[in-house]
Amino acid sequence: MSEQILFKVTVDNITIEVPAGTTILQAARQIGGAVAPPAMCYYSKLKGSGGKCRTCLVEVSKGSEKDPRPMPKLVASCRTTVMDGMEVKNITSEKVIDARAGVVEFLLLNHPLDCPICDQAGECHLQDLSFEHGAANTRYEFQRRTFKKHDLGKHIQLHMTRCILCYRCVFTADELTNKRVHGILDRGDHAEIATHIEKSLDNEFIGNVIDVCPVGALTDKTFRFKNRVWFLKPMDAHRDCPTCSGRVTLWNRGDEVYRVTARKDEWGEIEDTPQGKPGWICNTCRFDKKQSSDWVIEGPRAISRQSVIAQGHYAGKVGTTIPKETFSAINDGRAPHLLMDIHNESEVNQTNIHLSENEGSSNGTTFNHNINNA
Ligand code: SF4
Ligand code: FES
């Protein structure tokens, strides 16, 4: 067996040895933390991904040991392989930080300010990027793009205005289905995700496009508008599924299962199964198994401390705890003059209605319907 050739590469002053053929992004991920550039279109589990969004730009200040000249332009780290002796600057380069701010500004040109109503909020890579690099205001003076609505079927909701055209969902369908029925139609600023002649996405593995979408362009219709992710408790669970690995994360509130997703790693990508294969999950596990009794619960999922999801400190087996009284704490010990209970005041906060049992998305009509039928 031939010996593996290792290249020495330095990213932000940290040196590591990686096999020849490794990309700068993968080498930086091996170092970990903030040294790893953000990636909106690259997805290690999808062949051909990367090279679209430019969020992963880095500066190569030394090409290699043999040819130490710096690369003249910033390069996409997800598509550039390392050379022996290469030196790369990511967060230590002003040029990179400046360019990334520009890329984020472009990505946000047509992006609606949907975070308050978007199901992806709290786990959206674009939200994180704009928090770190985005400007407070837009300089854009033109109308934002609008699109004709396309119905992708009973499970997946498309919000084209949020799409950043990363192609991940297209590559996912290529990889997991025999016949892809959606893709990017048209070009330039007319480019959009659509199916040709209103087909629905119903392959048994197509739900995985929801997990790979870095923004809220593709969301789960069975979870839409039902809860904010930071109010849910992620639990690792599995079931004996004849179709997929059956290894999932359940997103619970109390004992109610609100959402089922594949397990994701620290880069937001699908985790591998113990057999070393990507842990894609089937539609049945994702959309139909919404009872705790359908699953063997393994335990709480570890969530990064930096994530807003980690801020929901729920205790107990799967249940929620009532937060401690904080009014007097934030009011310097004074009691409030008037306290209204949101459940009594608002018809969209009815504690007696189990949102996860509701077919489709929830809104005011759902609640009125339930109230009228009560
Ligand atoms: S819908 Fe999502 S995954 Fe598909 S191209 Fe748009 S942003 Fe990427
Ligand atoms: S992640 Fe490298 S170009 Fe998009």
Detail the topology: elements first, then pairings:
Blueprint: E1 6-11, E2 14-19, H1 24-31, E3 57-62, E4 75-76, E5 86-89, H2 94-108, H3 125-133, E6 156-158, H4 168-176, E7 182-185, E8 192-195, H5 208-212, E9 218-220, E10 233-238, E11 247-253, E12 256-262, H6 283-288, E13 296-300, H7 327-330, H8 342-345, H9 364-373
Parallel strand pairs: 1-5
Antiparallel strand pairs: 1-2, 3-4, 3-5, 6-9, 7-8, 10-11, 10-13, 11-12
Bound molecules: iron/sulfur cluster and FE2/S2 (inorganic) cluster.
FE2/S2 (inorganic) cluster (FES) binds next to loops.
Quick structural summary:
It contains nine helices and 13 strands. With 374 residues, the protein is of the alpha+beta class. The relative contact order is 0.10.
Q: Care to describe what's here?
A:
The protein has nine helices and 13 strands. It has 374 residues and is of the alpha+beta class. The strands form four sheets. It has a five-stranded mixed β-sheet, sandwiched between helices. It is globular, with a radius of gyration of 23 Å. The relative contact order is 0.10. The chain binds iron/sulfur cluster and FE2/S2 (inorganic) cluster. The site of FE2/S2 (inorganic) cluster has 13 residues, from loops.
